[in-house]
Specification:
- By secondary structure, the chain is mainly beta.
- It has 2 helices and 13 strands.
- The chain has a 7-stranded mixed sheet with strand order 5-12-7-10-1-2-13, with no helix packed on it. Strands 6-11-8-9 form a 4-stranded antiparallel sheet, with no helix packed on it. A two-stranded antiparallel ribbon has the order 3-4.
- The chain binds 2-acetamido-2-deoxy-beta-D-glucopyranose (3 copies).
Length: about 180
């Protein structure tokens, strides 16, 4: 009788594994004590499947919040934008190219953002919180394209800071793992 019960509990666990909700991690330019920072943010809104629950075959969606407007920016190859603050809190979605973001008085590597699948960042180092801002360089002979999308009313998306420094590539593999049903880390 007892062993039968134990088996039932075990199979229950197998049928309903406890899986933490999958959330989007993005590199963000924040600010602390008047200086811009690079941080890996985990956004609060979890992905939910838009198809039948339990099936990994369909699309997954996460809500990124309300927006204000959108600016399409074409950046020529080998361009150095220099140090600047974010004009307002905004998403920047790089669709192609390569951006290299560094911080003043900081000799770390900074963040390399490749356009495409993992090209979404958030810039929150506005002049009221950051004196010098950050430097954006677009090295190499690729053109870059960025969509700048300020949030409505300058809202900062709700997030946890996973760590300082940019997100690592493997911190973006969650959706691929889910879709392919493999572990990539
Ligand atoms: C775009 O949005 C920003 C932030 O909300 C606002 O300050 C700016 O005036 C808007 N630009 C245009 C062209 O509407
Ligand atoms: C960065 O600079 C500091 C002093 O400014 C130095 O102590 C440190 O070794 C440097 N780090 C690297 C990786 O060059
Ligand atoms: C975000 O990071 C967490 C912790 O590293 C990871 O478990 C999760 O899969 C990542 N999310 C995505 C969408 O890759």
């Amino acid at each position: 009788m007892y062993s039968f019960k134990a088996v039932a509990i075990v199979s229950g666990l197998l049928l309903f594994p406890v899986v933490a909700p999958l959330k989007l991690n993005i590199t963000a330019i924040g600010a602390s004590h008047g200086r811009s920072t690079l941080e890996c943010w985990q956004l609060d809104d979890p992905f939910s499947p838009s198809s039948e629950p339990g099936s990994a075959a369909g699309p997954y969606t996460a809500q990124l919040g309300d927006l204000s407007n959108i600016t399409y920016t074409f950046i020529p190859p080998n361009y150095d934008q220099g140090f600047h603050t974010a004009p307002w809190p905004q998403w920047v979605v790089f669709t192609t190219g390569l951006a290299h973001i560094t911080l003043p008085d900081d000799n770390s590597t900074g963040a390399y953002i490749f356009g495409g699948e993992f090209g979404v960042i958030f810039a929150a180092d506005t002049p009221d919180v950051s004196l010098k801002g950050h430097r954006s360089q677009y090295p190499g002979d690729m053109m870059s394209i960025g969509l700048q999308i300020p949030t409505k009313d300058g809202e900062i998306p709700v997030h946890d800071i996973l760590h300082s420094g940019p997100c690592k590539l493997k911190e973006s593999y969650g959706l691929r793992e889910l879709a392919l049903n493999v572990s990539l880390s």
